[in-house]
Write a structure and sequence with these properties.
seven-stranded mixed sheet, 16 strands, five-stranded parallel sheet, binds 1,4-dihydronicotinamide adenine dinucleotide, disordered N terminus, single chain, alpha/beta
Length: 697
C-alpha cells in the first residue's frame, strides 16, 4: 500500500499538490541553507516515506531505491514462489524498519511531524518541531504558521548567537548559575533543536550550567522550578503497572538514565527531585554523544525519601513517605528493569546517583543480563583511569604499563571510591609484572575511620568491594588500622592522592605539602562533587606543591599558580562526560548485549591517546572538552572494537572493522554519521497525511 501510494504520489503533477498546500509550487524549495535545497520535492518526499538509514552499511544497496524493488505487493503481481515470498518478507520488514528510521533527525534530510500534530500554532508550541523565526517562507505556508511568527527569517546560527549573547550578559553580570540554568530550561521548553545547538556549540561553558555543579542546586529546589513534565516517574504505587505505563511514552528509546534520587551529587537524599539529574545527564548524552533527543528517556524511581525537609515541604512533588527498603525496594527496581527491556529490548540503561548500599548490588544483579552500567561506579572509574594514564604522560612515562609503579591513597570507600580502585587495580595487574595479590599493595584505602586494614570489621554486603584491599593491607605498628591521612601519605610514600569522600578540605595543607615533598610531580585528584565538597581546591594544591601537582577534580576549578615559582598548574576536570556518551554510543552501535569492564578500560585508553604533545607539556591530562563530539566518537570506536573482540558486535559492524585501515577510518565515519546534529531541517507532515491527500486526489 505504501509503495502504491508512493508511486501514485511521485507521478502526480507537483503543482496540483501545491494546490493542496503541501507544496506551494515545485520550486518553492526548502530552507536555502539546507543541503537539500536543490532537491526535487518528490525525491525528498520519497526519502520521507522510504526512510533514511543511520546504518547504511547494513542495508542492501537497492534497499532505498524503488526502481530496483521487485517486490511490490500489487494485485497484478504474479504468484510468488516460496523463495520469492521469503525474500519479499525480508524486504517488507526492512521497509518497516526504514519507515521507523524516517523519524530520526540525526541524518534525515527532512523532519516528519508526528501524526497527531495539526497545522498552525500546535507546531509552534511543540518544542520538538518549533523553529520560531527559523521557519522559512515555504514552511510557513506548508505548516500553516504564516502570520503566526514575526515576518523576518532568522537562521539557527543567528538564533543561537542571540541566545548566547543573553547567556554572556548573565555571566558577565555575575548572575547566579541557577538563573542561567533556568534561562536554558526555558529555551528547551520552547525549542529543543536550538537548545541542543547552543549546548553543543558551547559545551565547555554550559556543561557546568546544565549539569554538575548547577544541577545540584536545581535538584534541591526542583519542585519549585517544575514547569513542564519531562521523563517518567515510577513509584512504589506503580508496582504491577510499570509495563503498561511504558506505553504512555511515545516512540523509540535508545537510552534510559534512571535514578532513585537517594544520593544526588553528594547532596544526599533528594527523592523525586532526582529527576533533574537524569534530565541533565541525558542533555549531555545528546550534546556530547550525539544521541537523538527524541530517543532518550529520563527516569526517576520515587521509592519515597528520608529527607525530612522534603517531607515537610508542602510543595514537594514526590511521594510523601519514607524510602522503601529491602525486598520491597528491589521489587520496584526489578519490575522497572523488566518493563524497560520488554518495551525497548535494545535500550541502554544507565544507573545514576543510587546510594552506595544499593548501587553495587543493583549493578551486580543486572550487569550480565542487561545492557546497563552505573556511571558513578564505572564511568567515574574509567575517567579516573583515563586521568591517571594522562598523568603518566605528563610525568614523562614511556607507556601505560608504568601505572604499576604508582602508589595510590584513596580517601573514600563508597561506590565511587571503590569503583575507581577496582579499575585501577585491574589496570595495574594488566600492565604486567605484578600478580593480583601483589598489586593490592599499591593501594591504601581510607574511610571516615582512617586507614582500612585487615583488622577492620567490615559490614557485608555493603563493604564487600573493600574486602580484598583490606585483607591485603596488614595492620602494622607504623600504619595501624585507622591511621590518619597524613601518616598514611607520609609512610606509604604514595605518588597519587585520590578523594571520593565528600569531605571538603580533607586534603589539608600539611597533606598536600607532604605530597609535594615526596614527589617531583604529585598526582592529586580531589574528585568529590559538588565544588563545596571537594577535598581541596586547585589553588590550595598549587600553593602547597608550588604548581607541580598534576591536578584533576570532579567539579570545575580555575588553573592556579604556585606560590614561589609562579608556575601555572593546570586544573583538569575528571569529568565523566569524557566517558559516558561515547561508551553508550559505542555499545548501542555495536549491538552489544552487555557492557564489559574491558569496554570501560578501552574508553579510558581512547581518551589518553587523544592528548597532543602540546597539551601534555602544559599539564593537560584530558583532551579539550569542547572537542567532546569527536572524543565521544573516538571512545565509541574503541568500544565497538572491544565489543567485536568479545564476540558481542553485530555482523555488519564486524564487516566494517575487518575492511578498515589502521586508523579505523571507516568505523569512525560510521559513528560520526550516527550522531544527531541539531539543525533545522525542512519539516513535512507524515506519510499517512500525504497518503490521505493522494487518495483524496
Ligand atoms: P559515599 O557517601 O557512598 O562514600 C563516601 C565515602 O567517603 C565513605 O566510604 C566514607 O566513609 C568516606 N569518608 C567520609 N569521611 C571521610 C574522611 N574524613 N576520610 C576518608 N574517607 C571519608 O559517596 P560516593 O557515592 O562514593 O561518592 C563520593 C564522592 O565522589 C561524591 O562527592 C561524588 O559526588 C563524587 N563522585 C565524583 C565523580 C567524578 O568526579 N567524576 C563521579 C561520581 C561520584
Amino acid at each position: 500500500m505504501m509503495r502504491l501510494a508512493l508511486r501514485r504520489f511521485s507521478a502526480l503533477p507537483l503543482r496540483r499538490l501545491g494546490d493542496k498546500r503541501w507544496y506551494s509550487s515545485a520550486d518553492d524549495g526548502f530552507d536555502a541553507t539546507s543541503s537539500s535545497s536543490k532537491a526535487q520535492p518528490e525525491i525528498i518526499i520519497s526519502e520521507a516515506i522510504d526512510g533514511f538509514s543511520v546504518f547504511p552499511q547494513e542495508l542492501p544497496s537497492n534497499a532505498r531505491d524503488p526502481s530496483k524493488d521487485d517486490f511490490i505487493n500489487d494485485a497484478t503481481s504474479p504468484p510468488r514462489t516460496r523463495e520469492q515470498q521469503m525474500e519479499y518478507n525480508k524486504h517488507e520488514s526492512l521497509r518497516d524498519w526504514l519507515g521507523r528510521q524516517s523519524r530520526k533527525r540525526s541524518v534525515d534530510e527532512i523532519v516528519v511531524l508526528t501524526g497527531n500534530i495539526h497545522r498552525g500554532s500546535e507546531i509552534l508550541h511543540n518544542a520538538v518541531y518549533n523553529k520560531g523565526t527559523g521557519f522559512n517562507h515555504s514552511e510557513r505556508e506548508r505548516l500553516g504558521v504564516r502570520g503566526l511568527v514575526p515576518p523576518r527569517f532568522f537562521s539557527i546560527e543567528q538564533q543561537a548567537e542571540k541566545i548566547w549573547q543573553q547567556q554572556v550578559v548573565m555571566r558577565e553580570s555575575n548572575a547566579p548559575k541557577i538563573a542561567r540554568w533556568r534561562h536554558l530550561q526555558a529555551l528547551k521548553d520552547r525549542n529543543e533543536t536550538l537548545f541542543y545547538r547552543l549546548l553543543q556549540e558551547h559545551v565547555e561553558e554550559l556543561a557546568p550550567v546544565i549539569y554538575t555543579p548547577t544541577v545540584g542546586e536545581a535538584c534541591l529546589n526542583y519542585s519549585r522550578f517544575f514547569r513542564r513534565a519531562r521523563g517518567m516517574f515510577f513509584t512504589k504505587d506503580d508496582v504491577g503497572h510499570m509495563h503498561s505505563m511504558t506505553y504512555n511514552w511515545r516512540g523509540d528509546v535508545k537510552i534510559v538514565v534512571v535514578t532513585d534520587g537517594s544520593r544526588v551529587l553528594g547532596l544526599g537524599d533528594l527523592g523525586a527531585h532526582g529527576m533533574g539529574i537524569s534530565i541533565g545527564k541525558l542533555d549531555l548524552y545528546v550534546a556530547g554523544g550525539g544521541f537523538d533527543p527524541q530517543e532518550v528517556l529520563p527516569v526517576c524511581l520515587d521509592v519515597g525519601t528520608n529527607n525530612k525537609s522534603l517531607l515537610n515541604d508542602k510543595w514537594y512533588f514526590g511521594l510523601n513517605s519514607q524510602r522503601l527498603e529491602g525486598g520491597d525496594y528491589y521489587r520496584v527496581i526489578d519490575e522497572f528493569m523488566r518493563a524497560i527491556r520488554h518495551r525497548w529490548p535494545n535500550a541502554l540503561i544507565q544507573f545514576e546517583d543510587f546510594q552506595t548500599k544499593h548501587a553495587l548490588e543493583i549493578l551486580t544483579n543486572y550487569r550480565n543480563d542487561y545492557l546497563c552500567f552505573n556511571d558513578d561506579i564505572q564511568g567515574t572509574a574509567a575517567v579516573v583511569l583515563a586521568g591517571v594514564y594522562g598523568a603518566l604522560k605528563v610525568l614523562g612515562g614511556k607507556d601505560r604499563s608504568e601505572i604499576r609503579k604508582q602508589k595510590f591513597v584513596m580517601c573514600g570507600a563508597g561506590s565511587a571510591g571503590m569503583g575507581i580502585v577496582a579499575m585501577l587495580h585491574k589496570a595495574v595487574v594488566k600492565s604486567g609484572g605484578l600478580s593480583e595479590e601483589e598489586a593490592y599493595d599499591n593501594f591504601y584505602i581510607m574511610d571516615n575511620n582512617g586507614l582500612i586494614t585487615n583488622e577492620r570489621k567490615l559490614e557485608f554486603p555493603r563493604e564487600a568491594a573493600v574486602e580484598p584491599f583490606a585483607k591485603a593491607r596488614k595492620a602494622t605498628k607504623e600504619l595501624p588500622d585507622g591511621a590518619s591521612l597524613l601518616d598514611v601519605v607520609t609512610k606509604s610514600k604514595c605518588t597519587a592522592l585520590l578523594g571520593a569522600s565528600t569531605v571538603n578540605g580533607l586534603f589539608t595543607e600539611d597533606v598536600l605539602r607532604q605530597m609535594g615533598e615526596q614527589n617531583e610531580r604529585p598526582i592529586i585528584f580531589p574528585l568529590s562533587n559538588p565544588t563545596s565538597n571537594a577535598e581541596c581546591t586547585s589553588e590550595e594544591a598549587a600553593k602547597a606543591t608550588d604548581g607541580r601537582a598534576v591536578f584533576s577534580s570532579g567539579s570545575p576549578f580555575e588553573d592556579a599558580k604556585g606560590a614561589v615559582s609562579g608556575r601555572l598548574m593546570r586544573a583538569n576536570q575528571g569529568n565523566n562526560l569524557y566517558i559516558f556518551p561515547g561508551l553508550g554510543l559505542g555499545a548501542l552501535l555495536s549491538g552489544a548485549k552487555t557492557i564489559s569492564e574491558e569496554m570501560l578500560v578501552s574508553s579510558a585508553k581512547a581518551i589518553s591517546d587523544m592528548l597532543t604533545e602540546d597539551q601534555i607539556r602544559r599539564g593537560c591530562i584530558f583532551p579539550l572538552i569542547k572537542e567532546i563530539r569527536n572524543i565521544s566518537a573516538r571512545v565509541a570506536v574503541r568500544v565497538i572494537k572491544q565489543a567485536a573482540e568479545e564476540g558481542q558486535a553485530k555482523r555488519s559492524v564486524v564487516a566494517i572493522i575487518e575492511s578498515d585501515d589502521e586508523h579505523d577510518t571507516k568505523l569512525y565515519k560510521y559513528v560520526k554519521r550516527a550522531q544527531y546534529v541539531p539543525e533545522y531541517r525542512p519539516t513535512v507532515f507524515p506519510v499517512e497525511e500525504i497518503r490521505r491527500t493522494v487518495d483524496d486526489y
